[in-house]
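Much of our argument rests on the idea that a fold can be written as discrete symbols. The record that follows shows the chain in one-letter code together with its fold in token form.
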Amino acid sequence: MSETATTGEGSQTQSVEPRERRMAAFWRRFRRNRPAVFGLAIVVVMLLTAIFAPLIAPQGPREQDYALTLQPPGEGGLFGTDSLGSDIFSRVVYGARISLQASLISVGIAIGVGVPVGLVSGYFRGFLDEWIVMRIVDSIQAFPFLILALVIAAILGGGLTFAMIAIGIAFIPNFVRITRAQVLTVRGLDYVEAARAVGAGHVRIMTRHVLPNSLPPILVQTTLAMGLAIIAEATLSYLGLGAEPGEPSWGSMLFQAQSYLSSAWWMAFFPGMAIFFAVLGFNLLGDGVREALDPRTSE
């Protein structure tokens, strides 16, 4: 009995240690990539800014003072004021909330639909995979991403909620294709065949063996999609199909600033730079995750 217990404890320890070693190796590879660490820092700062926006912003995002309209940075606060007398710094800070919310929900929708569809399609193959799922994916991907999101948002109606749904639907084909491609690689490996040979069911094989070993490319795609979702939300808000008028969306701030580019450059500059750094952070983070997960990366 003692031998059995010791063996069981040893096997459990052995199953935990490789996981810890893999995480430690991943972090070592990741932190050696300075652009990736810089991207992670940007994302963390953006996240903290969104969480603590009421503490950081000196004013509310909707507060207006018509006596302080179009004040330049310094005279009108850190980033100046807009045409309605609102503090641009406060609106940029609160805009981080909208951008993160839009990216998280839209990418979450895409993952929640695209990953299960790609998993089932790639695992079972056959008519469902070749003639239904992939043909629908090909048809959707025939449209440019932003145009597709714009069309879906226009059909659903205006508002941030419908914009997030539209962006999520437009992302689904990417996650279906990436998940399917990885599942096609994993499903024929030895450990999957061994699980099938001992009588494991399809659901158990997919959830316990195939999907966990298909996650690295999905994680990379998720990180990169977050940045693209920020651009898509800003674009839809700029065109009036995203955040409601008055909401501190970076895209709607750019729309408001287009009439003042020559007289009040700060109205467009600061929300534009916020979009730039947010997207840059997620892109650098995604590239770093991809390199750190690459087994060919040297220790």
Remarks:
- The first helix runs from residue 2 to 31.
- Confidence is low (pLDDT under 50) at residues 1-16.
- Residues 98-263 form a domain with the MetI-like fold fold (CATH 1.10.3720.10).
